Amino acid sequence: MANKKTKQEKLLILHKAQQTSILEASRKHGVSSATLYNWRNAYQGGGEAALSDQGKLDQGKLHKELQLENKRLKKLLIDRELDLEVQRELLKKKFGTDDPRKI
User: What global pTM score does this model have?
Assistant: First the structure.
């Protein structure tokens, strides 16, 4: 299992990497350079809060909420398309066309 770093440890390592280099800091602290780049990007995008495990949980929760919202919007779109199709069929039966401009 990976060695978990606290938010403060991550900040310290990032500070060291800024003073030296990502490669040197990764070797010194036993963290991959890819991990340091990920931490740096997270820090730049979301500040200190993005470095905590809670930030990852919040992102997962947000992702799930977005998926649910997309599912709800797709259902609304399908319902709207169905309503339009029913209206077109009624126009076709009543007026012989499904184009409302020809009525």
Answer: 0.49
